[in-house]
Design a protein that fits this description.
The chain has 182 residues and is mostly beta strands. It contains 1 helix and 12 strands; from the N terminus they run ββββββββββαββ. Strands 1, 2, 3, 4 and 5 form a 5-stranded antiparallel sheet that branches. The radius of gyration is 20 Å and the shape is globular. This is SMP-30/Gluconolactonase/LRE-like region domain-containing protein.
Amino acid sequence: MPATTDDDNRDSDGGGDGQGVSGETVGVVRIAAQDDAFAPDAPAPAFGINGLHVRGGNLYFTNSQKKTFSRFPISLRGGNVAQAGPIEVLRSANGTDQFDDFAFDSAGRVWAATLPDTLTVFFPPVRGNSMLGQLNALGNPVEFNRPTSAMFGRGGVAQQHTLYVTTQAGQLIAVDTTGIRG
């Protein structure tokens, strides 16, 4: 048996005691799925898989460098999540646009933070895969300066219709989605 050093036995807090930084037990880490659809088509620092959400038995994700919004079915067996079917590309970004993070609203619409400067709104194929539009058209008083993340509020009804968007320019933008139909 090869000799071990302190560096061989370290965990998330570096102590090698099986405890994380705040004292929690560190679990087993494994690859649940791996596919070329997750990887960038260019060397680092290109981004591959980016936004990631589970909804209705599927794992949805964006790949910024490949400009795709995709999903695949997942299964839970013995406490482990695994890919249960093929990856389906649901939408590709237009032109120089790149999907970053995204959020689902209560109607099932996808709100994707889209580089360089928009929010793209669409339904996944379940609802016809129709693109509803992009926010940040001319005349909009708020500029989405390289949006990176999107998340709906979790409080009362008003919060559930408020989409919070972060940007690389240090903005936190609140978007009232109440009047946006599709």
